[in-house]
């Protein structure tokens, strides 16, 4: 059972995630002249993943444009555009290439509202493909969401379905504050579903209960949702009821949904593909420990990447990235405790 | 723009011609590089090489520059610079391993100071400045050479590195390969500057613009820059004007952003053909001696391919190697997890096969 915050009504169209993102960008450009899309290769070429395909042809070179190759300047310029009243939507070609821009993000993007006492705010969206599972070269599979989640003043959204991608992206573009929007590369074309046509919104800050169950809560987001779903399906066959929660938004995090589920199941497995130490999974575990420890029947278990750089070695990439077997094992572990 | 040979192979600057042995060696290295590029495509299609960025057509830009170094110097190549790394002596087998996504491609030979190909753009430029300074502090005359593309020269790291190198008089040679494109973005959309070598002016260092399809010219200007750096004269920025005739990577479709006509003229400027014509005209090479050379290069490559094929696949726990000198307690625990996981998996696999 899926429970979307705004259940799709009316006409729908079957789309991949990348098509749904393209659709959202198209709608945002058409709805508001302030929206501008820019980044490396987003214009003529339509992005390395084609998320901006056709948008320049349709909306013009002033509103959809290629920038020089400089992430700090892409974010810095976006900040200036946002200050001056536009709605910048920047693409960072891969999340692993956000790093040159971190000074702009940490020193400025996240604190503009604060340091100007809301005289200025930055309605900027930064989209970045992230995560592994598709055999990319070095640094193309990083999951740096915890760095952003740790930065005050920015929101972090990570969809796991085409409909959510569209609905959350439109919410992000219309949000008054900066939003990081991470898109799991693995999901761009691997899933298709019915997506509402037109201006469809999914609110930022509301988790989605993907499957309901009474025994274990599996908390995940982005590229790990389908992995958790597979593990949950196997566990269900074995008679274990697994509740899979797709957080959708890391900042702000929907703790109510998580805590309510833990109150019911008493067991928590958290799945991300980021390195183990100090990842966002640790934050989720801390929230559960703080707010629901009396419900816990077993220690919280994290299934994550490892404390090593993501390996670009095809032969062993799958060791790093959590798979359904590892999640299933964690489910058994909390059940057997 | 410095040029030694015209596109038709005729000599335009007699005074810049390197000695005959050097000219032949440059040709040999360009053919090795091209052979790698051409075989690389085939191996990729056969599924025996991963996605790699081709450099065919840019051999003079890479070989002529790297050939000015010795084995004591540093080379900081980007993903595009297989040809430069091969020229300095990176073994073909290691290079194949790298583009096979094998960790064996990350083990650089102890007698070379070549870094693994850099994937994030421009980040290696400040690092080259540091390596160059360290050499000078230690009293050597070794230099550092770093590569970047026209696109990469928009990154802040590029500018900061040039400024640091100038201010600190670092023995650095910066090669800016202007190959016309940063994936789909043409140089004119990358920057309003039309002569990228002049960016050096802003940092008070020499800037040279050279025909990047002329191996004799790139070798000549790079030798000058390397000699100046060795002698304490500080850094140089060299813009090699060339063209990326191939797609951005073997998986890219350039028809989305450029026309055939954009590229067509550049075939006539091919760097390999240009030097070949010169060598034949000058009587330094005959068709027969060239055939011997090609046979030798083919044999060398096939032997290296066999060596790369013999490298074992990495084992699962290897992904945690080399994170710290001493693995942390967390890493040790994670290693045990992986080993247990895979022992259990192998056991299940074995009993399945036995059943
Ligand atoms: C910091 C960073 N940003 C973005 C990328 C993605 N990317 C890979 S190659 C490339 C274009 C590079 O163009 P250029 O510097 O001209 O070098 P070329 O590929 O033409 O050799 C881009 C944007 C990257 N690798 N690193």
UniProtKB/TrEMBL annotation, chain A:
Co-factor requirement: thiamine diphosphate
CDD domains noted in UniProt: TPP_PYR_E1-PDHc-beta_like
Claim: Lipid biosynthesis is one of the keywords in the record: no
Keywords: Oxidoreductase, Pyruvate, Thiamine pyrophosphate
Upper taxonomic lineage: Bacteria, Thermotogati, Deinococcota, Deinococci, Deinococcales
Protein name: Pyruvate dehydrogenase E1 component subunit beta
Highest taxon in the source lineage: Bacteria
Residues annotated as domain Transketolase-like pyrimidine-binding: 15-190
SUPFAM superfamilies membership: Thiamin diphosphate-binding fold (THDP-binding), TK C-terminal domain-like
Entry-linked Pfam families: Transket_pyr (PF02779), Transketolase_C (PF02780)
Residue ranges of the TM segments: none
């Amino acid at each position: 059972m899926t429970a979307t915050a705004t259940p799709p009504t009316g006409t729908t169209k079957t789309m991949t995630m990348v098509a749904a993102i393209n659709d959202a960008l198209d709608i945002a450009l058409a709805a508001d002249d302030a929206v501008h899309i820019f980044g490396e290769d987003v214009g003529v070429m339509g992005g390395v993943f084609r998320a901006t395909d056709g948008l320049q042809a349709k909306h013009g070179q002033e509103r959809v444009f290629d920038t020089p190759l400089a992430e700090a300047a892409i974010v810095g310029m976006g900040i200036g555009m946002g200050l001056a009243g536009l709605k910048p939507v920047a693409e960072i070609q891969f999340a692993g290439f956000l790093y040159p821009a971190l000074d702009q993000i940490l020193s400025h993007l996240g604190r503009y509202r604060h340091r100007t006492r809301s005289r200025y705010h930055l309605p900027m969206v930064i989209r970045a493909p992230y995560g592994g599972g598709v055999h990319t070269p070095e640094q193309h599979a990083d999951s740096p969401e915890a760095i952003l989640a740790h930065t005050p003043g920015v929101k972090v959204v990570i969809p796991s379905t085409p409909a959510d991608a569209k609905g959350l992206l439109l919410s992000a573009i219309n949000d008054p504050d900066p939003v990081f929007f991470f898109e799991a590369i693995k999901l761009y074309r691997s899933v298709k579903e019915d997506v509402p046509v037109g201006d469809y919104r999914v609110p930022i800050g509301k988790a989605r209960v993907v499957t309901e169950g009474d025994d274990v809560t599996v908390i995940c987001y982005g590229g790990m949702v389908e992995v958790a779903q597979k593990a949950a399906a196997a566990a269900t066959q074995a008679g274990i009821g697994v509740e899979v929660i797709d957080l959708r938004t890391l900042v702000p995090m929907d703790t109510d949904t998580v805590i309510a589920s833990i109150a019911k199941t008493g067991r928590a497995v958290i799945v991300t593909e980021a390195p183990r130490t100090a990842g966002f999974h640790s934050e989720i575990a801390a929230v559960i420990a703080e707010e629901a420890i009396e419900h816990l029947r077993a220690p919280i278990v994290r299934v994550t990447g490892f404390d090593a750089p993501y390996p670009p070695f095809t032969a062993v990439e799958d060791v790093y990235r959590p798979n359904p077997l590892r999640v299933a094992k964690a489910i058994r572990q909390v059940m057997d405790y | 723009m410095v040029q030694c040979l015209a596109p038709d192979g005729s000599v335009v600057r007699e005074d810049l011609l390197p000695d005959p042995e050097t000219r032949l060696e440059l040709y040999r290295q360009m053919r090795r590089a091209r052979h790698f590029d051409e075989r690389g495509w085939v191996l990729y299609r056969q599924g025996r090489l991963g996605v790699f960025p081709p450099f065919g057509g840019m051999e003079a830009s890479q070989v002529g520059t790297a050939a000015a170094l010795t084995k004591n110097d540093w080379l900081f190549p980007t993903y595009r610079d297989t040809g430069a790394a091969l020229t300095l002596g990176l073994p073909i087998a290691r290079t194949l391993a790298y583009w096979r996504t094998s960790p064996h491609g990350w083990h650089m030979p102890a007698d070379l100071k070549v870094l693994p190909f850099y994937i994030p753009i421009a980040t290696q430029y400040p690092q080259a400045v540091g390596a160059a300074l360290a050499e000078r502090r230690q009293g050597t005359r070794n230099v550092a050479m770093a590569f970047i593309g026209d696109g990469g020269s928009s990154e802040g790291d590029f500018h900061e590195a040039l400024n640091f190198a100038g201010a600190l008089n670092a023995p650095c040679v910066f090669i800016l390969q202007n190959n016309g494109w940063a994936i789909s973005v043409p140089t004119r959309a990358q920057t309003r500057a039309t002569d990228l070598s002049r960016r050096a002016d802003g940092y008070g260092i020499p800037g040279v613009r050279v025909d990047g399809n002329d191996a004799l010219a790139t070798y000549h200007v790079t030798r000058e820059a390397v000699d100046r750096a060795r002698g304490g004269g500080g850094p140089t920025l060299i813009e090699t004007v060339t063209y990326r005739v191939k797609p951005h990577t073997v998986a890219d479709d350039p028809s989305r952003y450029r026309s055939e006509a954009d590229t067509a003229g550049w075939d006539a400027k091919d760097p390999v053909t240009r030097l070949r014509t010169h060598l034949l005209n000058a009587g330094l090479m005959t068709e027969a001696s060239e055939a011997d050379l090609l046979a030798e290069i083919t044999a060398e490559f096939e032997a290296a391919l066999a060596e790369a094929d013999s490298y074992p696949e990495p084992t699962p726990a290897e992904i945690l190697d080399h994170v710290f000198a001493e693995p942390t307690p967390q890493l040790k625990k994670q290693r045990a997890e992986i080993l247990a996981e895979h022992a259990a998996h192998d056991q299940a696999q074995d009993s399945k096969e036995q059943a």
